[in-house]
Amino acid sequence: MSLPPTILPSITALHTHHPREHETFAPQAGVAAPRAFSSLRGSSAALSLNGDWAFRLSDRADAPDDFAAADYDASNWDTLAVPSSWVLHRDEHGQYGRYGLPAYQNIKFPFPVDVPCVPDANPTGDYRVAFEIPESWSGGKAVLRFEGVESWFKVWVDGAPLGFSTGSRLPTEFVIPATAGKHTLAVRVHQWSAASYLEDQDQWWLPGIFRDVALLYRPPRAVVDHFVHASYDHTTGKGTLKVDCEPAGHVTVPELGVDIATGESVTLAVAPWSAETPRLYDGLLDTGTSGETLPLKIGFRTVVIEDAQIKVNGKRVLFKGVNRHEFEPTRGRSVTRETMEHDIQLMKAHNINAVRCSHYPPHPAFLDLCDAYGLWVVDEGDFETHGFELCRWRDNPTDDPRWTAALLNRTQRMVERDKNHPAVVVWSLGNEGGMGRNIGAMADWVRSRDSSRPIHYERDLELRYVDIFSHMYLFHHQVEAIGQQKEPALPDVALDAKRRNSPYFLCEYAHAMGNGPGGLAEYQAIFEKYPRTQGGFVWEWIDHGLPKRLPDGREYYAYGGDFGEEIHDSNFVCDGLVFPDRKPSPGLLEYKKVIAPVGITGDAKSGTVTIKNKYDFASLSGLEFSWSLSVGGQVVESGTLAVPEVAAGASATARLPDITLPPSLAIGEGVWTVTAALAKPTRYAGRGHEVAWGQFPARFTAPTGLGTDHTPVVAQPTVKADTVTIGPGTFRASDGALVALGDLPVSDLHLEVWRAPTDNERFGGDAARWRAAGLDRLHHRTDAVWVQDACLFVRTRVSAAAHDRALQTTYRWSSDGSGLRLNVAVVPKGDWAGITIPRLGVVLALPSRLAQVRWFGPGPGEGYPDTKGAGKLGAHDLSIDDMQTAYVYPQENGARPDVRWAEVRGCEGEGGLRIDGVPSFALTARRWTTADLDKATHATDLTPRDKVYLNLDKAHAGVGTASCGPGPLPQYILRPCPTEFSVVLRPL
Ligand code: IPT
Description:
Layout (H helix, E strand, L loop, with lengths): L27 E2 L16 E3 L2 E10 L17 E5 L20 E3 L15 E13 L7 E6 L2 E2 L1 E6 L2 E7 L5 E6 L3 E10 L12 E3 L2 E2 L3 E6 L6 E9 L4 E9 L3 E4 L4 E4 L3 E5 L11 E9 L2 E7 L4 E4 L2 E4 L2 E2 L2 E5 L13 H13 L4 E3 L7 H10 L2 E5 L23 H15 L5 E5 L8 H13 L5 E2 L12 E4 L3 H8 L9 H8 L3 E6 L10 H10 L3 E6 L7 E4 L5 E4 L27 H9 L3 E6 L4 E6 L9 E9 L2 E8 L9 E5 L14 E9 L11 E8 L20 E3 L2 E4 L2 E4 L5 E4 L2 E2 L1 E6 L6 H4 L4 H6 L5 E11 L2 E10 L5 E10 L4 E10 L9 E9 L2 E8 L16 E6 L16 E11 L6 E14 L3 H6 L11 E10 L22 E9 L1
Bound molecules: 1-methylethyl 1-thio-beta-D-galactopyranoside.
1-methylethyl 1-thio-beta-D-galactopyranoside binds next to loops.
């Protein structure tokens, strides 16, 4: 309907939205060309501007920018540390909120998708700091360098605008005249900008100047940029060095006697660089500037694709990798060099040899450390547009020419900054940005600038533009098919041929969220079998939990939703191999074992051990081997093992000593353990650090004791009033409940098939189906209690409200006088088709004074059917508290699998209970119930009850990695079927 012209209201436009300066597609203005970080290493002066800056936070982007004026009075502003993210600042009570709050979303954008606009509510940090340029700099230039600012920033010096930049995890330089005297630097940072559409990585949003800021003096003729080309020819053993430099200069490498002009190349015998042998040569680059020489770290190595494999220095390499985000619980992405180094030491000590920089270039110091310590690095562009997937990829920047310049800019700044690192062997264009022509533009540019490294971008699944075939979270059997070059064909014949002859790795796999990841060993077997499948990168290194404090002072790790986010992705941000405090999780220990560089298998009959060197380059000369023989968990003899030289990829056989044990010792389970440890201290671990180990049964091995099904039944039950006793067991006659074992009160013994769902089960796994089937709320009705054949029988029907299916459970108790044997027979009744269960066992409650567990079985850490490689068979001793694994989101944890026997005692060693397996059981000991654990959402929700709960399980399901990827493999899934198991209980 239109109104007649005469009564048209006159319009006074009060506001029309035009894109604001931070809502443009342009990535930067007024900045210097990108260059190698190593170009800054010259001996010329540099001033760090890190420190306390004046700071003011506005909740909108349009606060007046008069604060940039040199004479602006900011005396009433706050002080904020640079580098840091303003949202992570806490008050003296540990509370957040002074400068807004962190927020976590994985894929979803936290604002309406409306390219290139962002909300009016746009936290904006204004910063001011004074600096002084010394007299001695006059005649040269000064460069203001920002290593990382999230997400858009504009810079003024003395009130004059210099320009702006985006690309949060990339450096920006502004060149200014080196005018001696005092100056004022003013910076405005918007949290949200058009560039935020390119930075949808799965992590906390952490705005601010979060990496270093420096002022660099550049004398005339100082190195602007340089590119070190150092290749290695494995057929001749020679390396070729050429250093391009602007301006031209001279290169010396004293150790090699090299003295060449820049642009000139020299070929000579060298030791190559690899992640296993990180040989760096020190060089010097001199461009004839007084007082400025540039140190070079040169590593000779050549990366090629050949035979559908990535080869370094002529050899196929196997990536035993991890995805690394930058994270520290109190500092966010402002990670210190100490932490970076600590991480690298932890990685190396856990046999990890590769890092994917997910999903942005790391702080430059990290790559220096990778060069020095030896890690293969996939350096990745600061680029992810995953949130567009939820809008069916409409307006995805990846395929939009308006964004080509911004995306190229990001790629160029990564490659230019990091091109001189031998550790960087693959360029990755970014992560989860869908597909589009800008990927082609980025790949073309990389190829034209640096043809020495292959290009990766996982979403280019057809390999239109990139060189490496890669997936995330693919199932084992699909990876195996790729190993065999039998993947399903692409419709385009030429692309199919290219892809089928390309190398493959999993840029992400084994989602390490909570308890898990399960199935690592099976992946590794595939990687080791097929040359094309060159390993993968576990997702991810660290749980990004932020410490939050309760009113009572207790701290816990917070995750998405804990800061009142309107939309969020809960604890999906906690999916690392180390906990937020960097303590290794059981997943890391499992990974260490699975990827160990030495395979150790033995055969007691022939007295031999086979040692397989799984390194790609290194010999085993850095390791020393030892053996031990133990019986029932007691080491009876040990010594060193002589192992001949074993070249990379080869195997050798070593002889075990011939040991005859006296018959008195040779009873019980005998096991050989062979260990490979560092023979010398390294940068990451001391001499004796265990690298690999293997175990195998001794010749005389035999299970013994009560834990067999042949124990004679001797003690007769006595029925007296309302009590039945059998051996040490006292039962209530009315319902057959065990009430005491000797003097030890016991309560609430019953079948349990429930466990507090793991993250893998809650996200993508079976938890919802289990709850629907009522496995978490089973009722136990006693059907019958009777004494027969020296046994007490208790038959129960275990079933859930609203369901007619049940587990008929019969407990049969008997005794040989000292021990009390429990046999549990479970028969599923009714329709259980399609229903799996998480575990099957009994739980019992004991007095809370029990505190310490000693057991014989794998350990000391937890283990589930698909995560039990790291457990070493032996006798272990832990407190109940130390048996808990405090996953950030509470869930099933702490089970010790395949336990032969266990003793639970008070903290002073006073009496308790011994459990013998028939032949073994899984043991969990806790101060809370399964239901408590299930209900808890943060570690501080769990408070000890006045009981200790023991789970004695016949079986646990595997944990898999279904939070992102495959669930447990078929052999690790439990389906109800008629089953029986036994344990023997004895008072201590
Ligand atoms: C994949 C992402 O690349 C990674 O950043 C992280 O989010 C991970 O998932 C889950 O934790 S994308 C996924 C949809 C396969």
